[in-house]
Amino acid sequence: xxxxxxxxTGRYLNFDLLGRPHRLYIEEAGQGIPLLCLHTAxxxxxxxxxxxxxxxxTDNYRVIVFDMPWHGKSSPPDGWQNEEYKLTSRDYIDxxxxxxxxxxxxxxxxxxxxxxxxxxxxxxxxxxxxxRAIIGLETAAHVAPYYDVNWLHRPDVSVGxxxxxxVSGLISPTAPDNHRWETLWHYMQSGPGVFKGDLHxxxxxxxxxxxxxxxxxxxxxxxxxxxEYDYSCTSEGTLDVGKRTGAPATIMKGLGHFPMSxxxxxxxxxxxxxxxxxxxx
Length: 281
Prior knowledge:
This protein is of the alpha/beta class. Helix content is 36%, strand content 19%.
């Protein structure tokens, strides 16, 4: 293989976020309509590497991916060692809006997966006017508990390997091995208690079932895409949100809970028609 650089720029943004100084890592590529991407619980922005490298996307969209605080290359705030990390819907919403403001994004498209796919429902409900369109990947209004999250932060187990084990079954059985294992590697590198803290939002604080009927999917330009093999955000859960909001919902064949990282080409084949529709609207 000949040496080559990927067309991705990575930078650190120092600013006040949620009332505290933060050092946030951000990657971007492309030009045009801002597309702000939200990664899954316990992982980081590397999940969107395929999107950042696809000219069919970056010719018309400025793809922007940030590592949430505590995740990836973003540091926790000072004093983190004296607190327990727990993501809440309020902080998650404020984080997205404050980052968008800091980057001076004008009516960006926002796209999130898993916890990101849940929080975009809150954005559609409360802040639809801030966004040109909203894309939910693996979006459902809630998730029924199906494992003990305490295993994700214990001193007597390898938490990184346990985290990867928990999510491994959510990846499509047809996903290419290289993408499958890179997706799992991101989970193996998660910081202590971070995955568990994200799931506080996903499993407890972020239940939005009571507000879904108040979302106008057409007015908020909401689109839903879910992998057929996802048993955390099920196809039935996504289709229910689509029916209740009026948003178009597509079940993606051959994909699981991490479509953008487990099989980027397959995922992008589903995403491109959505992006084109948004672009010409």
